[in-house]
Design goal:
Layout: E1 2-3, E2 22-26, E3 28-32, E4 56-61, H1 70-83, E5 86-91, H2 97-102, E6 110-114, E7 117-121, E8 130-140, H3 147-151, E9 155-159, E10 167-171, H4 172-177, E11 186-191, H5 200-207, E12 210-216, H6 222-236, H7 243-254, E13 264-267, H8 276-280
Parallel strand pairs: 4-5, 4-6, 6-11, 11-12
Antiparallel strand pairs: 1-5, 2-3, 2-9, 7-8, 8-10, 9-10, 12-13
Helix pairs in contact: 1-6, 6-7
């Protein structure tokens, strides 16, 4: 773990990337929708939480090793610190199965998860047979590790492309059954693909104590989703901004993903009228 610090902007323009296919395996390899990402600038009209000294946030960057975006980290950290959060940063190989297992016990009130993710299909031949949504770790896959979790389909064998190394990925059952402790009215923001295509992850995080869950409903382009995620963090940190207003304003600024048509959604709908301050109390 490292304390997030504002960093120098990267020299040169990053090459635009997208990952239209992600490969996830439960028994056999199966294609899923993939992750991709982007960012946005400065904030204003900020409101400080009631107890800023007790308010901590985390940026979990599973993509850091292969697709770092220092500008994204700097911008999101700036927005959260401006609101009053103390921000911790977890990158690359720190994002393991056991890291996720212990995440609720760390006491964060807002977590941004920048990760490969996707909706897992039972077979590539049957487009409608979605069986769950999974978030990648950076832990190399092994057939002999976590046998109980693998047997219960809490974990999947995942890879970004056919030539990529196999990694563990966590699903809704892992969140419900194997995460230790509970979140304390935590806001979860997923910077990745298809994490509200189905609401299985959203429901699992809510059952673990999350007060709001924001994610995209389809595959996303890398540059787009980083930019849009930074934008929604900025919008949430504005004074009196509700979840629904932050999502609406983000869509007004960045629009839907031009390549895949993904849009930002939130769960549960009944918390759409709450501000960030109300959500984390």
């Amino acid at each position: 773990m490292a304390k997030a610090k504002a960093k120098k902007q990267l020299k040169g323009k990053q090459q635009k990337r997208s990952f239209p296919w992600l490969w996830v395996t439960i028994g056999v390899f199966i294609p899923v929708f993939v992750a991709a990402f982007c960012f946005m600038a400065s904030s204003h009209n900020l409101v400080t939480p009631a107890n800023p000294k007790d308010t901590r946030a985390a940026i979990v960057d599973q993509l850091y090793t292969s697709y770092p975006n220092e500008d994204f980290t700097t911008e999101v950290t700036k927005e959260l610190e401006g609101y009053g959060f103390e921000v911790d940063l977890y990158q690359g190989n720190n994002v393991t199965v056991d890291f996720y297992r212990n995440l609720p016990s760390k006491g964060y009130r807002l977590i941004v998860l920048r990760s490969h993710s996707g909706a897992v299909r039972a077979s590539s031949q049957y487009v409608g047979s979605i069986i769950g949504t999974y978030l990648f770790t950076n832990e190399p896959y092994s057939t002999i590790k976590y046998p109980k979790e693998q047997w219960n389909n809490e974990l999947a064998r995942a890879r970004v492309t056919e030539s990529s190394p196999d990694l563990f990925a966590i699903g809704a059952k892992f969140i419900s059954n194997s995460m230790e402790g509970n979140f304390n009215n935590t806001v979860i923001i997923i910077d990745g693909c298809s994490c509200l295509y189905n609401d299985d992850l959203a429901q699992a995080f809510a059952q673990k104590g999350a007060s709001a869950y924001l994610a995209w409903d389809a595959t996303v382009d890398l540059d787009y989703v980083d930019r849009a995620t930074a934008c929604v963090v900025k919008q949430l940190c504005k004074k009196d901004a509700t979840v629904s207003k932050a999502v609406m304003n983000t869509m007004a600024v960045v629009g839907a993903d031009l390549k895949y048509g993904a849009v930002l959604r939130y769960y549960p709908l009944e918390n759409g009228g709450k501000t960030l301050k109300e959500l984390i109390q």
